[in-house]
């Protein structure tokens, strides 16, 4: 099946050669510009040159939002999320993530120096694609999110990414992706042997400065 082409917002260091990459996927209804402003706040100026790639999700009808057309990595049929999943949309967005990793390889960044990151829906794809990717990634950042197609993880997981560090952050007052969805994902991953660095914050469905500090520290560690 053909991988759809997606446009991306990119933030590239002006004073250093690019040696690392972070592919960061936005949440439902947002776009690639959503997290662009956070790059200077992560404290990566003194490390290896890191390119941030913020792809725009395809526009599709989202059932839970009365069928409105918006940028989404997959359709959401209801607020229970997991009882019925858009497997075709999840697979399509996984192919997009994989293609973006491969594009970084073509531009000279090895997979082991690529972090796959995302918020909410984007975080679900970061986890789903990252844990199944056949080559070792530097890390996975999963913010305010949950697992999709969790029942297939054991059979589809990549041995190469079994030891890949995972940063997971979630708000204790999140009304959209409730806190328990995040802790459930954490527990499933931990029980499967993944190295999850868990952080919780007194916030809703958003990102706060303390979380950015923790993400920055994680990225500095895994990107060297």
The structure class reads alpha/beta
Q: Give, in order, the helices and strands.
A: EEEEEHEHEHEHEH
Strand order of the largest sheet: 1-3-2-6-7-8-9
Unreliably modeled segments: none
CATH architecture: 3-Layer(aba) Sandwich
Number of individual domains: 1
- Which sheet architecture does the biggest sheet show? 7 strands, mixed
The fourth-level CATH homologous superfamily is Alpha/Beta hydrolase fold, catalytic domain
* Text of the CATH class: Alpha Beta
Task: State the distance separating the first and last CA atoms.
Answer: 36 Å
Overall mean pLDDT score? 95
How much helix is in the residues? Answer: 25-40%
How many helices in DSSP terms? 5
Strand content: 15-25%
CATH fold name: Rossmann fold
How many beta strands in the DSSP annotation?
A: 9
What is the overall shape?
Answer: globular
């Amino acid at each position: 099946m053909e991988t759809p082409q997606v446009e991306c917002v990119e933030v590239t260091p002006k004073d250093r050669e690019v040696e690392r990459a972070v592919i960061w996927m936005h949440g439902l209804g947002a776009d690639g510009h959503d997290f662009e402003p956070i790059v200077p706040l992560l404290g990566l100026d003194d490390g290896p040159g890191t390119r941030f790639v913020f792809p725009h999700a395809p526009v599709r009808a989202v059932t839970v939002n009365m069928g409105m057309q918006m940028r989404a990595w997959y359709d959401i049929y209801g607020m229970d999320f997991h009882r019925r999943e858009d497997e075709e949309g999840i697979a399509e967005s996984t192919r997009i993530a994989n293609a973006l990793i491969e594009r970084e390889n073509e531009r000279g960044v090895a997979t082991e120096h690529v972090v796959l990151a995302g918020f909410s829906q984007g975080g679900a794809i970061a986890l789903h694609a990252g844990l199944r990717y056949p080559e070792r990634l530097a890390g996975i950042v999963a913010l305010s999110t949950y697992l999709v197609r969790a029942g297939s993880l054991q059979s589809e997981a990549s041995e190469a990414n079994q030891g890949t560090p995972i940063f997971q952050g979630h708000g204790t007052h999140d009304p959209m992706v409730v806190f328990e969805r995040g802790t459930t994902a954490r527990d499933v991953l931990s029980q499967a042997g993944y190295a999850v660095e868990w952080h919780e914050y007194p916030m809703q469905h958003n990102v706060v400065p303390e979380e950015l500090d923790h993400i920055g520290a994680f990225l500095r560690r895994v990107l060297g």
